[in-house]
Design goal:
The chain has about 110 residues and is an alpha+beta fold. The chain is built from 4 helices and 4 strands. It has one domain: 3-Layer(aba) Sandwich (Endonuclease, Chain A). Strands 1-2-3-4 form a 4-stranded mixed beta sheet, with helices on both faces. About 20% of the residues are buried.
Length: about 110
Amino acid sequence: MVGRNLRKKDTPHELMVLEWVRTTGLGANAQEDFPPYVVDIYIPDMKLGIEVDGPLHFSRKDKKRDQELQDRYGVDIWRLPLKILKMSYKEEFTNQLMEKVEEQSNA
């Protein structure tokens, strides 16, 4: 599988966000393969991928990638800039995640 070759080591911030997701009661996987891509965190029940964007992300390339993940796999991508990920952000993150869960359940 192509995606397996793209795997990288989880960053501390990705692991932190993964733990935040799991504290909401949602199941999530780290480093989920969607060939030719790997998504940082994936919530299967929501078909939601979460990408922790460091300083080397390029919005045009990311938009193309996100669209391809949506078109090919039906996966929505939620991008979190690394610079906002602090422990104080946890409550805001979990609130926004639960809003997404509610939106999906009402759709």
